[in-house]
Amino acid sequence: DENLKEAPATPPYNLSEYFKQFLFPQNECELHSFRLSFSQLKWDKWIIAPHRYSPQYCKGDCPRVVGHRYGSPVHTMVQNIIYEKLDSSVPKPSCVPAEYSPLSVLTIEPDGSIVYKEYEDMIATKCTCR
Amino acid sequence: PHSRDRAVSNKISGLLVAPEDAISELNPLLRLPKGVRRGYALLPPLLKVLSDQGRQNWESEAPRLQPDSRALRYMKRLYKMSATKEGIPKAHKSHLYNTVRLFTPCSECKHGHRDLMKGDLHSVDLLFNLDRVTALEHLLKSVLLYSFDVSVPTSSLTCMCHLSVKEHDLSSQVCPSISHSVAFSLHFEVRKRKWVEIDVTSFLQPLIATHRRNIHMAVNFTCLMGDPQPNTKRDNSIDMALVPPSLLLYLNDTSEQAYHRWNSLRHRRKNPVRPRLRNSPFADTTDDEARANTRSKRASRRRR
Q1: Could you read off the pLDDT of B260-299 as tens digits, one per residue?
Q2: Which of A16, A120, B70, B282 would you call most buried, defined as having the most Cβ atoms within 10 angstroms of its Cβ?
Q3: Does B227 touch chain A (CB under 8 A)?
Q4: Closest Cβ–Cβ partner in B129, B260, B278 for A111
C-alpha cells in the first residue's frame, strides 16, 4: 500500500503482457542440458569412457512462494521474506540442484593400470530453490 | 605440489587446492572441514584436474604408461556392461563393487633352464604393484584374467594350475621363498569366449587386506585341448604360460566421492521418486505421475 501511494500512477504499456508474466513466468528455475566432451578438455588421453559427460545445471528465477513444486524447505520462503521486507543484503534463494545421478568413469592410471570407478553426485537431475 | 601458478590457482580454487601449510592463512570460511581435507588425495580425477596438479597436467601432461591393448579391451567391455551410454551405472547390478582395478604384471621371468616343450609345466613369475589401491578401497573379489587366442582349434580345454605367492626373505633378496600355494584344475568350453577369469580371492585376501604394495606370485598354468582323459597326448597341450595374466580387483570404495549403491537404494525406499522436471533426459516419471505433475503446475499458475 505504501509503495502504491509513492509511485506515480503510470499504467503498464500493455496490460496483457503485464499479466502474462504471472500466468507464464519467464526464466523459472529448471534443469538445463549441458554436454561436454572430454576431448575438449584434453582429458581424453586418460579418461577412456565415457566420451561425453552431461553434468546438466540449474538456472532460473525462484518464485516468491516456492511451496510444494520445488520441494523447498520452509526456510526458503522465510529467506524470501527477509530479503523483501527486512534486509535486501540477505540473498534471495537460488536455483540449485536437489538430486544427482552417479557417473561411471574408466581411466588410465599413471602406472598404466586401468580403473573403473563409480562416482557419486556427478549429474544434476532435479532442481530446487533454496 | 610445486606449481608456478600456485598463488593464482589457490586464489581461484582455494576450496580444492589449499595445501596443508597454507590452510591456516585462508579465510576461515574457505577452510575445508578436516575430514574433507584428508580426502583431498582421493578426489576423483575430474575434480583433481582443477587443482594445482591438474593445472600442470593440462598445460604439459605427464606421459602415462599405456596399458596392454587386451586389458583395455576387457575393461571397455566391462564398462559397457556396467554403465549406460550416458555413463550412469546400470541399476540392475546386484553386486556391491563400485571400483574395478586391472593390473598387468610389471615384470616376469621364467624359471629354469629346461627346454620349453609343450606340456611341460613351467613357472612364470608375476609381480603386481598395487600402489594405486587406496586404504579406503576394500577388496571384494580378486581374479586372474587370462585371454585366449580365438584361433585355438578346440571346443574345450582342461587346465591345471599351480599358484604360489612368493615372500621376499629380508636376509636374501635374490631368493624369494614361497609363503603359500594352491593347485587346482578346471575345465571349460572355449566357444567364442576370449577371457577366462580365475577367482583367487581367498588366496590373495590376506595379502591385500594387509595393504601389501607388491604381490609376487608364480603361476604354472598348462592347458590341454579337449576333455580330461587319462594318458592325454602331449601334442594336445597349449602353453598358457606364454600369455601372462592380468590381476583384476573388484573393490568397494568407501570414500565419500564414490557411489554407494546400497545407500541410494536405502534412500529410495524412504523417499519415493518424485516427478522430475520436464525436459530432463533422466526423467523417469510414469504416465500417472506426469499427469499429476501437469495438473499441479496448472493449478499453481491459476493461483498466481
Answers
A1: 987 665 555 555 444 443 433 333 344 444 455 555 566 6
A2: A120
A3: no
A4: B129
